[in-house]
Design a protein that fits this description.
This protein is α+β, with helices and mostly antiparallel strands. It is built from nine helices and four strands. It folds into two domains: 111 residues, Glutaredoxin, CATH 3.40.30.10; 104 residues, Up-down Bundle (Glutathione S-transferase Yfyf (Class Pi), Chain A, domain 2). It binds glutathione. The site of glutathione (GSH) has 12 residues, from loops.
Length: 227
C-alpha cells in the first residue's frame, strides 16, 4: 500500500493527497508534525531536505510534490490525470506551474500580512492577475482540459477555492466560481476540507513556522560544519 507522509493543511501535500483520492488508490496517511518532526533522523532518512510530502510505494521513495504527482499518474494510469493531446497537456502543465509559482506565494502573503499592509495589496493584485488568466482558460469546458479532470484541478483546485476565505471574491470570475463549486462538491475535495479550527490554526502557525524552520536549518548547518 502507498504511504503518504503529509500534513492536512500543507499546500504541497494536499495536491498529492487529492490525486491519490481521485485515482482511488489505497493509502496509509502518516501525519508529520511540522513543529519539528521533519528534522528527526527517521524523517530525514526519507527526505534529507526535511519537507513533506514524501510518498513511499513498496521499496520506492519519492519526494517533491511534482515528482510524486507524475509518478502516481505514470505508475497507476487508471483514472489518468494527464491528457494525451500535446496542446491540452501544455495547458495543464502551464496551470500547474502558474498555480505553484505565481499563485501560491501570493496566497501565503495574503495570510501572513494584514489587509491594511501594502504587501497584502500587492499580493492581491498578483492573485487577480492569475484569476483573470485562469478565467480565460475555463471558457471552453468544465475543467482546464475540457471534460477531463486533470493535474490542473489537482493543483489550482487546492488554492483558488480558499481565496474567498482570504478576502478575494470569485464574483467577477464566473467560470472559475462555477469550477470551484464543482470541485468542492466532489467527495475527494470534501475529504481534504479543513475544519474551521484547522484553518485558523494553520493561519496562525504559517506566520511563525517558516522562521522556526529557517532557524533549525541554520543550526543544523552550523553543527554539521563544526562536526
Ligand atoms: N518543493 C517541495 C516543497 C515542500 C514544502 O515546502 N513543504 C513544506 C510544507 S507545505 C514543509 O515540509 N516545510 C517544512 C520545513 O521546511 O521544514 C515540494 O514541492 O514538495
Amino acid at each position: 500500500m502507498l504511504k503518504l507522509y503529509y500534513a492536512r493543511p500543507s499546500a504541497y501535500a494536499r495536491p498529492v493527497w487529492l490525486a491519490i483520492l481521485e485515482k482511488q488508490l489505497p493509502v496509509e496517511l502518516i501525519p508529520v508534525n511540522l513543529g519539528g518532526e521533519q528534522f528527526e533522523p527517521e524523517f530525514l532518512a526519507l527526505n534529507p531536505f526535511a519537507h513533506i510530502p514524501v510518498l513511499v510505494d513498496g521499496d520506492f521513495r519519492v519526494f517533491e510534490s511534482r515528482a510524486i504527482l507524475d509518478y502516481l499518474d505514470a505508475q497507476y494510469p487508471d483514472r489518468s490525470l494527464l491528457p494525451s493531446d500535446p496542446k491540452t497537456l501544455a495547458i495543464v502543465r502551464m496551470v500547474q506551474s502558474v498555480a505553484f509559482s505565481e499563485l501560491l506565494p501570493s496566497v501565503i502573503r495574503l495570510i501572513v500580512f494584514d489587509r491594511d499592509n501594502s504587501d497584502w495589496t500587492t499580493a492581491s493584485q498578483q492573485v487577480l492577475k492569475v484569476l483573470t488568466f485562469f478565467e480565460s482558460l475555463l471558457a471552453e469546458g468544465p475543467f482546464f482540459a475540457g471534460e477531463q479532470l486533470t493535474m490542473a484541478e489537482i493543483v489550482a483546485g487546492t488554492l483558488v477555492p480558499v481565496l474567498p476565505n482570504l478576502g478575494i471574491s470569485l464574483r467577477d470570475y464566473p467560470n472559475l466560481k462555477a469550477w470551484s463549486s464543482r470541485l468542492l462538491a466532489r467527495p475527494s475535495w470534501q475529504a481534504i476540507a479543513l475544519t474551521p479550527d484547522e484553518w485558523s490554526d494553520f493561519k496562525r502557525r504559517i506566520k511563525v513556522l517558516p522562521k522556526v524552520w529557517e532557524r533549525r536549518r541554520r543550526e543544523a548547518d552550523r553543527s554539521n560544519l563544526q562536526g
